[in-house]
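Researcher: I'd like a structural prediction for the single chain below. Treat it as a standalone chain; there are no partners to consider.
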Amino acid sequence: NVRILGLHGLLGIHFIGYPASVVITLLFFLFIINSFNFIDGIDGLASLVTIIATLCFGILFFQSSEMHIVE
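Model: Treating it as a single chain, here is the predicted structure.
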C-alpha cells in the first residue's frame, strides 16, 4: 500500500483521491526506472548516482534520528 497521497501544495494540490494517487504513483515509479535506464547508457554513471543518493539518504536518516530506517 505504497502510494503518493498528496503533493504538499505543489500546483495547489494537497490531497489526491485513490484512483489518481495510484496512477501518479505508477507514473512516478516508471519515471525513476526510465531515468536510471537512460543514465545507465553512460559507463559507471548509474552506479555513481546510486552511491551518492544512498549516502545522502543515509546521512539524512541518521540526522533525523530515524535509525529504524537505516537498519
